[in-house]
Amino acid sequence: MMHSRSLIFVGIACLVLLSGCKRRERIPVQLTEEEAPTLASVIHAGDPNAAKQFLKGFHEIEQNSWRWTTRSFSVLLRPPRSGAEKGAKLELHLSAPDAVLDKLKSVTLTAAIEGLTLKPETYQKSGDYVYSRDVPGKVLGAEVVKIDFTLDKFLPAGSVDQRELGLVVTSAGFEVK
After folding, report:
1. Coil/strand/helix, residue 105
2. Which residues contact 165 (CB under 8 A, 6 or more apart)?
3. Could you state, in order of their start, the residue ranges of all structural domains in the chain?
4. In the list 29, 105, 113, 166, which could disulfide-bond 69, CB 3.0-4.6 Å?
5. Buried b or exposed e, range 123-148, using 16+ CB within 10 angstroms
6. Helices of type H across the chain
7. In whole angstroms, what is the distance from residue 71 CA to residue 67 CA?
8. 137 compared with 16, residue with greater pLDDT
9. Which region among 34-43, 69-78, 162-171 has the lowest average model confidence (pLDDT)?
10. CA atoms of 55 and 149, how far apart (whole Å)
11. Taking a C-beta distance cutoff of 8 angstroms, is the pair 105, 98 a contact?
């Protein structure tokens, strides 16, 4: 008898305690500038964490490693620490696919950083390439820089795919000189 009264008392005490607890609201936490993740100097197309640095002109990640581009595409990169003094090397790892070159015969890629146009490169055979250009320090003084890429030709949406297609990109980044 004593045992059952104890259990009832414990049960009532738990109910009283639980009814007094209020559910706490989740307050969204915002990172301060000091805590915010820094942008990378090299980004990989298959990395979902780098998505914010693939600014425009990129389709979704495919096969966990690459992305199709459109005619114009842009990335946001953090220059190397010594970039403003020594400059850096911009590298875009890409593929010129058969699907594009069979129809277009050639594609010319041009890059521009802070108003400075870098030397273009033309691809006439399908395969893997690295568009590599020296970038002077005078355009690498900011904490981040936007690089705009443009193709002279591309496959319009509906010609081979429902999307506009240019090149396939696997990574973009700055290398220290």
Report:
1. coil
2. 68, 69, 70, 99, 100, 154, 155
3. 42-176
4. 166
5. beeeeebebeeebeeebbeeeebebb
6. 2-20, 83-86, 98-104
7. 13
8. 137
9. 34-43
10. 11
11. no
CA dihedral 78, 169, 130, 117 (to 10 degrees): -60
Query: Residue 25 above 50 pLDDT?
Result: no
Q: How far apart are CA 78 and CA 141, in angstroms?
A: 10
How far is it, in rounded angstroms, from Cα 126 to Cα 93?
14
Q: How far apart are CA 135 and CA 96, in angstroms?
A: 23
Residue 37: pLDDT band (50, 70, 90) is low
Domain at 42-176, CATH from 1.10.150.130, 2.60.120.10, 2.60.120.260, 1.20.140.10: 2.60.120.260
Q: What is the pLDDT of residue 177?
A: 86
The string of pLDDT tens digits covering residues 97-135 is: 999 999 999 999 999 999 999 999 999 999 999 999 999
